């Protein structure tokens, strides 16, 4: 029965800025060694201590654009027209085949791309307890002008429109609960038929295929 | 956010006879008071102590057949042409709307019917550790002739062919693990977008619908 290793889960955590998806990710990774954050490719220069293939895959702008053209990214973004950041498809596929669960913390647009390219990806939307709370969190950062807060709130509303495209929603009210919920989702998704090559022999015996 | 109650999960546990799905169900119900076994309709006579609407909904053959004709069952079977047993659609829908998780322990054919009528139903296939184990369990019952064991084994193989139609598979090797896995599946399914009317107001605010 255990002839083939179960595939890992590609889990995409996204949601409006200010919702605290970064905090949820960090807590999840700290608690769950089987879940690994994806290593992104970037065109920005390495900072002291950063390691190729661990912190990032460092690329020149030329290399990155050739990879875009070749369809080598699950999603990418051009941050302020300054630096590209992207999720290399090959890296993610290798990790999943090795049975590792891979976590992507990306924006809503990126999530929609991943969904298109990897139909087995599990999309989790992190929702604030209320839109008022989200606004307060954005104000509370103290780093944003009133205008920026307004803009981000409008963006958050626009992003919420994509909620029906997601598989799951978790409310980030109490952090521990939110992390528990993502863990539960990952555990359940590991039991999905589409991720059970351990049942392949069984099916062969019965004369069917997964 | 909690204006609307989340819908319950309709969870269908099925698999070949001898796999121990009844044992998994019993252990799950004992541990998890939010999960309720569906109340079936039947044409067999009530036994002492059985209560209408609790043990079964007792029907005459005529009543039952009128219900079949009206499409009132999610699935039903005619056991040895003697007695009908079926899952009343209205009962299940009321329970789900009230936020209760409903468990159905049914055969593979019934499960396919439920899937057709309730696309949100969660189908879990209970798999034996191996086909050899299943055969040994059938023999071990001691109640079956060699011929009957052969027939049941052939049936089990035929049923396994429908595995790819299911959402999840659990291996019934260690009972506790199997029950844990069903619980995890139910918890995760409660977080699915399609079961989150608690997010309806949110979506309204954002100008979208779930």
How do the SSEs of chain A run, as a string of H and E? EHEEEHEEHEHEHHEHH
- CATH architecture classification name of the domain at 10-38 and 100-206 in chain A: 3-Layer(aba) Sandwich
Shape of chain A: globular
Supply the helix-strand structural class of chain A.
alpha/beta
- The CATH topology of the domain at 10-38 and 100-206 in chain A is given as Rossmann fold
Largest interface: A-B, 37 and 38 residues
Mean pLDDT value of chain A: 90
How would a crystallographer describe the biggest sheet of chain A?
A: 5 strands, parallel
* Corresponding CATH superfamily of the domain at 10-38 and 100-206 in chain A: P-loop containing nucleotide triphosphate hydrolases
What is the oligomeric state here? homodimer
Walk me through this protein's architecture.
Two copies of one chain form a homodimer. With 210 residues, chain A is α/β, with parallel strands linked by helices. Chain A has a domain at 10-38 and 100-206: P-loop containing nucleotide triphosphate hydrolases (Rossmann fold), CATH 3.40.50.300. Helices cover 41% and strands 20% of the residues of chain A. Chain A contains eight helices and nine strands. Chain A has helices at 21-31, 61-69, 89-97, 108-117, 131-140, 146-160, 175-189, 200-206; strands at 10-14, 35-37, 40-42, 56-58, 73-79, 83-88, 101-105, 122-127, 168-171. Chain A has a five-stranded parallel β-sheet, sandwiched between helices. A four-stranded mixed β-sheet of chain A has the order 4-3-6-5. Chain A is globular, with a radius of gyration of 19 Å. The model of chain A has no long low-confidence stretch (mean pLDDT 90).
